[in-house]
Amino acid sequence: MRTLTKIVLFLAFVSFFGCGKDKPAARVVVADEDDDAPARTTVAPIAPREHVDSPLYKSWSAFKKGTTVTHRTVTGSGDYQTITTTTSTLAELSDEHAVVETQATVKRHDGTVLNNPPERFTNPRRIPLAPGVKKEDFGKAGQIDEGEATLDVGGKTYKTKWTKSKDRIESGAVFSTTWTCDEVPGGIVKSITEVPAIGKKTTVELVEVKTP
Fold first, then answer.
1. Angle, CA of 163, 1 and 151, to the nearest 5°
2. How far apart are CA 164 and CA 74, in angstroms?
3. d(CA 1, CA 145)
4. C-beta separation of 166 from 151 below 8 A
5. pTM to 2 decimal places
6. What is the DSSP letter of 55?
């Protein structure tokens, strides 16, 4: 479930999954015992990375093209808060990938409003595991607890699954709780992330889902 968190608006979940094609075999230079002889180059094969089903693709593929989901993200504390409203739309859907277009409007603490240009994200049906991650551990990095809960969001009741996780960045420990539901494109109903050392808190909450 944590992968869906990182989907929260498609941020930070790429670092866990990894991306792109498998890397080519590494080239290793071997020195000859004779110092005057040229070095020999050999190729050390790298095992291909295992692929798994993408939670993002699976979530969006359950909806029709044109479906939209809107989230509200509040970052900061007190009077110094940034509010971002992001609307994500399923622009393309095939057996191989789901293309989601997002548009974000940002309101800064000083009242400034920025309308960011739309961005497109292609979510493949299958994604490679990050190096060192086992298939059975996929999506569980940092997870410390999980359970189920009912949330009332946007005038609707959702039966959600929640996970708690702990991570660490340069600023200190990061604590996250994420609530997900299959009825929501992308999965995210709510997410709270806190960095106590610097007093930073980010809350993401579902606003609405529209289907064609």
1. 55
2. 19
3. 11
4. no
5. 0.75
6. H
**pLDDT tens, position by position, for the chain (212 residues)?**
444 434 443 333 333 333 333 444 444 444 444 555 555 555 555 667 788 899 999 999 999 999 999 999 999 877 789 999 999 999 999 999 999 999 999 999 899 999 999 999 999 999 988 877 777 776 667 788 999 999 998 789 999 999 999 999 998 999 999 999 999 999 999 999 999 998 899 999 999 999 99
Torsion of CA 19, 60, 1, 117, to 10 degrees: 60
Interior/surface letters 127-162, b for 16+ CB within 10 angstroms, e for the rest = bbbeeebeeeebbeeebeeeeeeebebbeeebebbb
Distance CA 48, CA 61 (A): 27
